[in-house]
Amino acid sequence: MKFGVVLEKMNKSELGDGYYYAHVPSLGLTTHGLGIEGALSNSNDLVKLWIDEKKANNEEIIHSNEELFTTFEIGEYA
């Protein structure tokens, strides 16, 4: 199974510098980790836990076949 992950650098957090959010949009899951590698590793662990819970409850595991991501700029509005 493949899942899309969106990584977002955390602005000055309580954890310190170098942390990233890892969002799995198709599942509505978010975690974080130190560096990109840490965030990806933690998102992988989180998705595995999510799948284990779904299996334990005999629930269907639904995932997206396509992930799209883009950005846009608002400029001086904010």
Strand order of the largest sheet: 1-2-3
Instruction: Please identify the structural class as seen in this structure.
Output: alpha+beta
Poorly predicted parts: none
**Mean pLDDT across all residues, rounded?**
90
Percentage beta strand: 15-25%
Q: Residue share in helices?
A: 25-40%
What's the order of the H and E elements? EEEH
Number of domains: 1
Number of H/I helices:
1
* Radius of gyration from CA coordinates: 15 Å
Q: Looking at the structure, what is the overall shape?
A: globular
**End-to-end Cα distance:** 39 Å
Oligomer: single chain
Major sheet characteristics: 3 strands, antiparallel
Could you walk me through the main structural features you see in this protein, from its secondary elements to its overall organization?
The model has no long low-confidence stretch (mean pLDDT about 90). About 30% of the residues lie in helices and about 20% in strands. The protein has a three-stranded antiparallel β-sheet. It has one domain (about 5-75). The protein is α+β, with helices and mostly antiparallel strands and about 80 residues long. It has one helix spanning about 35-55, and strands spanning about 5-10, 20-25, 30-35. The N and C termini lie far apart (about 40 Å). The longest helix has 22 residues, at about 35-55.
Summarize, please.
By secondary structure, this protein is an alpha+beta fold.
How are the secondary structure elements laid out?
Blueprint (H helix, E strand, L loop, with lengths): L5 E4 L9 E6 L4 E6 H22 L22
Antiparallel strand pairs: 1-2, 2-3
